[in-house]
Amino acid sequence: MVDAGKLWAGGFATALVAALIAIVGIVIARGIFHIPVLAPNRSGTWGDADTVTYALAAFGVGLVATALMHILLLATPSPFVFFGWILGLSTLVAALAPFATGAEMASKVSTAVINAFIGIGVWSLTVSTARRSLRRGNSFDSARSPSY
User: Fold this and answer.
1) Which of 21, 61, 116, 123 satisfies CB 3.0 to 4.6 Å to 95 for a cystine?
2) Total domain count for the chain?
């Protein structure tokens, strides 16, 4: 049985961490290395509204991942395996997507790294939270589920 309160409290915290990863990544890329990540360099370290949009999108990814995990826990025979595949492939797409643009290579790499860190953070925190939200006596105990 899933303790939905614990799962969603952890999901909210995960979403907050994801947003902070986006902000830290932008500060490092723009502020330290002077590499544009969503907006031109002239926007400064904090950029423009795109910085807020990027952080809010990362926050949303954390919440969507929690919703996905909740559904998988309730409806699939191997929720952690499916979640691992879905998040792994989604993170790969997010990391590769900047290379499909016409931006400068430094911008592509910095955005890819930020996206990868967001994906890995959301992935690991959501799995950890989900494992701790399971009540004893269900078929998802950690002895039977692979760790992803």
Assistant:
1) 116
2) 1
